[in-house]
Amino acid sequence: MSTMPRPRPAQHSGAADQAETYPLLSFSFPGLEGISQQAIKTHLELYAGYVKEANEISAVLASPSSYSGINEAVHARESLARRLAFELSGVRLHELYFEQLKSGRDAKAGDDAGFMNCVADCFGDFNTWIEDVKQLGKTRGPGWVATYLDPGAQRLNNLWVDLHQLVVPAGQRLVFVLDLWEHAYWDDYGAKGRPKYIADVLRQTDWAVVGRRMTSERG
Questions:
Q1: Distance (Å, rounded) from C-alpha 89 to C-alpha 164?
Q2: For a designed S-S bond to 98, which of 27, 54, 72, 191 qualifies (C-beta 3.0 to 4.6 A apart)?
Q3: 110 touches 211 (CB < 8 A)
Q4: Residue 107: enclosing H or E segment and its boundaries?
Q5: CA–CA–CA angle 18, 20, 25 (5° rounding)
C-alpha cells in the first residue's frame, strides 16, 4: 500500500526540470493470496517502466529544439503527445490498482456509505456490481475494467478500457480499476485463469480506498 502524492505541475523551463515530474511510488503487498510476490515484482517493474518513459517524454517535450524542421517537428510533436498519453495513463492506472490492493480484505459491503449507496442506486446492490465487473472482465484481449463516477449524474459505470488511454470518457472520476493485461495474472493463473484472478483481486480490495475516490479530485 502507498499514499499517492499529487503530481507536481509540469514545468516547461527546460529538460532538466522534467527529469522526475512523475515520481516512482513504492508499494508492498505482504500476505496476498493467489498473486505471488514474483508476479508483484514483475508488475512493479512494468510500472517503473511507464514512469521512466513518461519522464523521458516529458523531458523531450520541454525542449522543442530537440526536434527540428517544420514537417518533422509537427510529426514528432504528435507522436510524443500520443506516447505520453499512453505511458502516463499506464502510470496512473497502475498506481490506482496497487493502492487499492490489500491482503485479507473480503469483497463485501464496506464502511463507505457514499460508495455503497451509489452502487445500490446504479446496480441494485454490491453483489450485482461485483458480478458486472466479473462479466466485463471476460472481454477478450488485454485491457482494464474501470469503474467511473459521473459526478454530474452521480452515476457509476463499469467500462472496458483498451490500451490505457483509449475509451476513457471525459469528465469522469476513476474509483476502481482492474488490470487485465496478461502480465497481471498469467504467471500465477495461466492463460485460462482470468476468472480466478479477478475473484482474488476483488476479495483483496480495500473498499475504503475505493470509497475515498468518490469525493477525491484525483483520478
A1: 6
A2: 27
A3: yes
A4: none
A5: 150
Name the H helices within the chain. 37-61, 70-100, 113-123, 126-136, 186-189, 194-203, 207-212
pLDDT per residue, tens digit, the chain (219 aa), is 444 444 443 443 444 454 568 999 999 898 899 999 999 999 999 999 999 999 999 988 887 776 655 566 667 888 888 999 999 999 999 999 999 998 765 545 556 788 889 999 999 999 999 999 999 999 999 999 999 999 988 999 999 999 888 877 888 999 999 999 999 999 999 999 999 999 999 999 999 999 999 988 665
C-beta atoms surrounding 183 within 10 Å: 13
Rg (CA), the chain: 19
Domain ranges of the chain: 15-100, 113-212
CB-based contacts of 133: which residues, under 8 Å, 6+ apart?
145, 147, 158, 176, 178, 198, 202
Task: List the grid coordinates of 194.
Answer: 482470468
Q: Tally Cβ neighbours within 10 Å of residue 171.
A: 8
Q: Was domain 113-212 assigned CATH 3.55.40.20?
A: yes
- Are the beta carbons of 187 and 194 closer than 8 angstroms? no
